[in-house]
Specification:
This protein is about 80% helix and about 0% strand. The chain is mostly helical and about 270 residues long.
Length: about 270
């Protein structure tokens, strides 16, 4: 449930932040006549995301046996990659509001009314469909790893919409930086689990060797099929009897993320200096 909640809340929050920033900027600059364009962009983005989910489900349902296992592994690795790019992007975005406002201002000042509407529509549409497609891939990866929880996913969407509304329309007292930092840590561990799960699927399909399989077995201490074990498996990719290759993949991913994080932080310090 928590993994589904994390994915949908994080993805929906990013989209809702873009929508909230655009609407707030239009209100601030007395351009309320563009509000309908924003709403049209939201509707079009949601419809496009649903269509993408439909075709992805149809496409993924056409595999069986070994091909299905390989497809599941690839989906998990793609999900981990997209999660990683999303997390690193959010770490770098200190001025997300100014960036989006700058794009809106550019379309309002430098374009004819028709092109202004098209530009604002595309900002919203791209934000919605990008997060929608990523959510489809992430949830399918979760489904292969541990199963999708509809309640958790729905609560994540609702929570993100509420947070976006409160931050930009009402109180503006929510510490988004701290919230993103906490969710980033959880999502990094979740992505590492997807990498390990993806490798496991490739091992089952006979595409790669686990080198030493299993490397150890602690299921007698914490069974991965128990309540706690299933929770850890779904959220962090816990495996009570992993192969050596799975452990290497998990640790290598965390090491890579730590390296990239330190690189981003060091570059910020140099710019600030």
């Amino acid at each position: 449930m928590i993994d589904s909640f994390l994915i949908t809340s994080r993805e929906t929050l990013e989209a809702s932040l873009v929508v909230g920033i655009v609407l707030a900027y239009l209100n601030k600059t007395n351009n309320q006549n563009y509000r309908k364009t924003v709403y049209y962009g939201i509707i079009a983005g949601i419809i496009a995301s649903i269509i993408a989910a439909f075709f992805f489900t149809i496409f993924s349902g056409g595999f069986e046996g070994k091909a299905e296992t390989i497809f599941e592994g690839i989906t998990m690795l793609i999900g981990a990659f997209l999660l990683t790019t999303m997390i690193l992007w959010m770490i770098q975005q200190r001025h997300i509001a100014k960036e989006i406002e700058g794009k809106v201002e550019k379309h309002l000042i430098n374009s004819q009314p028709l092109f202004s509407h098209v530009g604002i529509f595309m900002i919203i549409f791209v934000a919605i469909i990008r997060e929608g497609i990523e959510t489809v891939i992430f949830l399918n990866a979760i489904n292969y790893a541990s199963g999708i929880n509809f309640i958790g996913g729905s609560l994540g969407i609702l929570a993100a919409i509420v947070v976006g509304y409160l931050f930009f329309i009402s109180t503006k007292k929510i510490n988004l930086k701290r919230m993103f930092n906490v969710s980033s840590i959880l999502l990094i561990l979740f992505a590492a689990g997807l990498v390990a799960h993806g490798i496991h699927e490739f091992e089952e399909a006979g595409v790669v060797s686990g080198i030493v399989s299993p490397l150890f077995d602690i299921n007698h201490i914490l069974d991965e099929n128990s309540i706690v074990g299933s929770f850890l498996k779904g959220l962090f990719g816990y495996n009570g009897n992993p192969s050596l290759l799975e452990v290497i993949a998990y640790a290598s991913y965390l090491g890579l993320i730590f390296y990239l994080y330190r690189k981003i932080e060091n570059s910020k310090l140099k710019v600030g200096a």
